[in-house]
Amino acid sequence: MRETNFNTGKFFALLAAVVLAAFMLSPFFDTGSGLKADAKLKNLKDRVSLHYALKNVGEAEGAVEECQGDYYACRDRVKCAPVTYRETKDAETGPANLVTSIVLDYRAFDTLGEVTVLFISILGVALIMTGLPALPVKKESLIQLAGARFLTPVIMLVGIYIFMHGHLTPGGGFPGGAVIATAFLLLFMSDSGYGYRERRFKSAETLAGAVIVLLALAGLVLRKSFFANFLPNGVVGELFSSLLIMALYSLIGIKVGSELAGGIKNLYTGEKDD
Amino acid sequence: MIENRLIYVLSVLLFIVGLYGAVTRKNILKMLVSLSIIETAANIFLIGIGYIEGSTFPILSQSLRQVDRLGSVISDPLPHSLVLTAIVIGVGTTALGIALAVRLYDRYKTLNINRMEDKDEL
Predict the structure, then answer these.
(1) In whole angstroms, what separates CA A150 from the centre of its chain?
(2) Domain segments of chain A as ranges
(3) What's the gap between Cα A93 and its chain centre?
(4) Residue A245: its chain B contacts at CB < 8 A?
(5) Which B residues, 35 through 54, put their C-beta within 8 Å of a C-beta on chain A?
(6) pLDDT per position as a tens digit, A110-144
(7) Global pTM value
(8) What span, in angstroms and rounded, lies between the C-alpha atoms of A163 and A248?
């Protein structure tokens, strides 16, 4: 009885999947007179994102306001100076990594929400794991212990490098924090004598989060906009350029690292019920 | 008609694979893996929108010294940043799902949802 149910269920799942696939693929074969999005967007110069790349979003906004919001009518009026690596100075935003300039400057509020979502989900992990008995952990071997002690500082250094260079290279606070959390995972797995001090992790996380919000409020006070970039931007491509973004990514790295380390600890041994 | 790009078709197929897995698997961890596959498919689709023929990554460096008004050398950085957000949120939801799976295993000593139902009837 169960066997037949099992197979019909799979059959209907496959059928539904095929129908959905046909529906999702239908725009590729549709020759109707709908919106032809892709034809207009073949180059970056045809997209609004060009202004993120050229770091002149403010000017573009001003020009669009003059034309009553019609971007394509007045895009030629926007002044577009080229951005050059290690030459452009004091641009609207500093990072050489254009993705970072969007994530932490133009759309920084979005990133604040992202940090909050991660915080809440790790909080949920702690809540769900409350009162579970600890996993039976095998005693570590000598090689495991020695390897972990050798590798932990190296992994942490790589994590710090990743979040300090978030404005120059791929990476940033979230990957850097995740790498730091793997260092702690290695300690949990190998060193049974490792004393995890929960309160220190929690306070590092809380402090970093509070400073992020304070920096955002400082932007509100000094430049009349939440998360406004009020620190000097420097030369594009140098390490000490775009100081605000460097500070924010370092704080996010610390926050995410301590948060994920706490989450891993909870999954590994269960939250203490007290 | 959307311009036929292989990456869109592939992301739709990946989405379907993930959806089929999420519907048919009985093991909770396999369901979570399927959900991750769906998420990856959505991310690939967004990145595919951002890609421009013959472009390179949107990071100024020694090899990409200048972006000018023509802007044709780099891909669109906006979908990249949106996907960055999506990935982090995916990590959060996956962690929460795995925590729930651990909790269920602690209660039922199995990850198979059919056997969980059987144990509830007892």
Answers:
(1) 29
(2) 24-82, 99-269
(3) 18
(4) none
(5) 52-53
(6) 999 999 999 999 999 989 988 887 777 677 788 88
(7) 0.88
(8) 10
